[in-house]
């Protein structure tokens, strides 16, 4: 009888521990993901890769992903995620005006990991490619192909905030550093192929000779190349880009007259941002900023970067 009682007590204690462990194992961290609405293939890929990584970590986290069309909508969604109980938020705040709501989230005890965009808020973790170095590499690339003299069009995107500012700064600083004496013409555009086509078509009318185009984005560059083709221009020797678009990669070997270049800035980097959020919530020590180095892709190495499963 005593032996049976002991076995019963031990078994009961074991089941209690197992059940308690099961409940504990079900406690998952809540992570919110905020991304812009899809206006660009790269942005679509960001949301795709973020959700894919969250699914891979579903044994550790619950997640909600929301997309927005402007800062006010993203702010409202951030508030919704707070109400839901998010412990961390991975945000891609593409517009100005997100500083205050992100600061308030941090003050409420929520960990915030910014993807790509740099904003002036203390306590934010950030994961991004090296936008400044993309400009640096673009300057070296153009100088290597056309020398240090010539006419170069610079396509900036002021609405992209620090992304455009840093890429342009890296480009201009490097031109000065290497002593490139270019005739520069700077125009505002957008990160879309439609804008690249329309704006470059106008630029080609204004300038009868251009040696190179410093474009910051693969989508824009596809439009630029279309405009050059439609105008029948043979003077342009280099068109740069940025992002990592499969369609753009595939164009590289087909145009022998123009060196088509992309400074790789893969949307898959957002997976690292999700990982940072998880590590912070699990108490791991994580650097405040994680910068992923630039890789240059052109017709000499594009095959290494082809990915048939990529959404971008």
Automatic annotation (TrEMBL):
It comes from the Bacteria. It holds the Pfam family Peripla_BP_4. Transmembrane segments: none annotated. It is found in: Cell envelope. Residues 31-285 form the Periplasmic binding protein domain. Keywords: Signal. GO terms for molecular function: carbohydrate binding. One of its GO terms (cellular component) is cell envelope. CDD domains: PBP1_ABC_sugar_binding-like. The keyword Protein biosynthesis does not apply. Its main location: other. Belongs to the bacterial solute-binding protein 2 family. This is Monosaccharide ABC transporter substrate-binding protein (CUT2 family). It comes from Halanaerobium congolense. The lineage of its organism: Bacteria, Bacillati, Bacillota, Clostridia, Halanaerobiales.
């Amino acid at each position: 009888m005593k032996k049976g009682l002991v076995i019963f007590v031990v078994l009961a204690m074991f089941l209690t521990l197992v059940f308690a462990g099961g409940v504990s194992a079900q406690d998952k961290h809540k992570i919110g993901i905020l991304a812009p609405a899809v206006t660009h293939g790269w942005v679509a890929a960001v949301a795709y890769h973020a959700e894919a990584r969250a699914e891979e970590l579903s044994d550790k986290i619950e997640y909600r992903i929301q997309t927005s069309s402007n800062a006010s909508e993203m702010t409202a969604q951030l508030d919704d995620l707070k109400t839901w109980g998010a412990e961390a938020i991975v945000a891609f705040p593409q517009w100005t005006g997100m500083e205050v709501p992100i600061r308030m989230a941090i003050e409420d005890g929520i960990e915030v990991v910014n993807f790509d965009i740099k904003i002036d808020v203390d306590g934010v973790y950030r994961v991004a490619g090296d936008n400044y170095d993309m400009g640096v590499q673009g300057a070296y690339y153009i100088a290597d192909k056309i020398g240090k003299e010539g006419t170069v069009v610079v396509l900036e995107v002021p609405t992209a905030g620090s992304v455009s500012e840093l890429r342009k700064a890296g480009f201009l600083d490097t031109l000065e550093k290497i002593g490139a004496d270019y005739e520069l013409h700077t125009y505002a555009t957008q990160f879309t192929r439609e804008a690249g086509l329309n704006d470059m078509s106008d630029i080609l009318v204004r300038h009868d000779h251009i040696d190179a185009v410093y474009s910051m984005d693969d989508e824009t560059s596809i439009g630029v190349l279309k405009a050059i083709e439609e105008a029948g221009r043979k003077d342009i020797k280099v068109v740069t880009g940025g992002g990592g678009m499969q369609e753009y990669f595939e164009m590289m070997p087909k145009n022998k007259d123009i060196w088509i270049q992309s400074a790789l800035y893969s949307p898959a980097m957002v997976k690292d941002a999700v990982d940072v959020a998880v590590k912070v919530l699990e108490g791991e020590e994580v650097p405040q900023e994680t910068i992923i180095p630039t890789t240059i892709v052109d017709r000499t190495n594009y095959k290494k970067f082809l990915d048939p499963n990529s959404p971008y």
